[in-house]
Design a protein that fits this description.
There is one protein chain. This protein has 60 residues and is an all-beta fold. It contains no helices and 2 strands. The chain has a domain of 35 residues. A two-stranded antiparallel sheet has the order 1-2.
Length: 60
């Protein structure tokens, strides 16, 4: 289990890119779970180590 916290905002006139990097061993596949501030969860199954994913919060 690996966790990364991504927060919005920042200091005055600054920009932080909301990116998190994770490593998977070998040819392993993993599951990505994103818990949004409102408590909803997005799950992406079968994630490969050589992927770049963009996960957006689904509309309510």
């Amino acid at each position: 289990v690996a966790r990364r916290w991504i927060t919005g905002g920042g200091s005055y006139q600054s920009v932080d890119e909301p990116v998190a990097f994770f490593a998977l061993a070998g040819a392993a596949r993993g599951t990505l779970r994103v818990r949004w501030p409102d408590g909803t969860t997005t799950v992406v199954e079968g994630v490969h180590g050589d992927q770049r994913l963009v996960v957006a919060k689904p509309p309510l």
